[in-house]
Amino acid sequence: MWDQRFDQEDYLYGTEPSQFLAAQAQRLHPGQRALVVADGEGRHAVHLATLGLEVTAMDSSGVALAKARKLAAARGVAVDFHQADLHDWPWTPAHYEVVVAIFIQFADPELRAAIFAGMQRTLAPGGLLLLHGFTPAQLAFRSGGPPCAELLYTPELLRDAFAGLEILRLEEYQTELREGTGHVGQAALIDLVARQARADATSASDKPSN
Fold first, then answer.
1. Inter-residue contact 197 to 204 (CB < 8 Å)
2. Rounded distance between C-alpha atoms, residue 74 and residue 77, angstroms
3. From CA 66, how far away is CA 70, in angstroms rounded?
4. What's the number of domains the chain is made of?
5. pTM (predicted TM-score)
């Protein structure tokens, strides 16, 4: 299905990052290790690489990854692209300073829970999780996203799923999307920015009190 969807000359969702990721530039720093989950044609991974991050990106579609590699070459950046299924992704523990997941709302609740747990596991101490997607209000619009409420995000769902992280931003809102031909028009969105506990904070919390 995804190979068929991405099999077109143009980039389905464009070549620029989402408004959400572009707005996080002040939180990101050259040299940080970043993982971009299910990044399709590579627009988010390539954006992070242009900011100087060391980026690993994965997707299940070989067609999308071919276009992602072409985009990276055109922008003159290096990205470590992997063709992989999220059912099998290893989620290397405590490895990445940044984990990005944008519009990955194709997973049923069971797989979604495993993905969310894996993203938290692979975050290094002090690492940032950047998650962006559609809310159930998106069902009233025709600007993209799955036509199934159980695949969409609510603040309560994300707060519960990432209760082990420090939530820096959790906001739902509506805005106009202009992302290729795949996301066009009014949309109901939600942003999550959360941080893994730092190693020194964890150590301090483990010390016995007097």
1. no
2. 8
3. 6
4. 1
5. 0.93
149, HSE (Cβ side, Cα atoms, 13 Å)? 3
Q: How far apart are CA 12 and CA 210, in angstroms?
A: 59
Domain extent, residue 123, equals 2-199
**How many other CB atoms are there within 10 angstroms of residue 95's CB atom?**
16
> Which CATH number characterizes residue 160's domain?
3.40.50.150
Q: For 142-185, how does the pLDDT look when each residue is reduced to its tens digit (9 = 90+)?
A: 999 999 999 999 999 999 999 999 999 999 999 999 999 999 99
d(CA 130, CA 21): 8
Rounded-to-integer distance, Cα 80 and Cα 77, Å? 10
Task: Spell out the residues 6+ positions from residue 8 whose beta carbon is closer than 8 angstroms to its own.
Answer: none
On whether residue 208 sits in a domain, the answer given is no
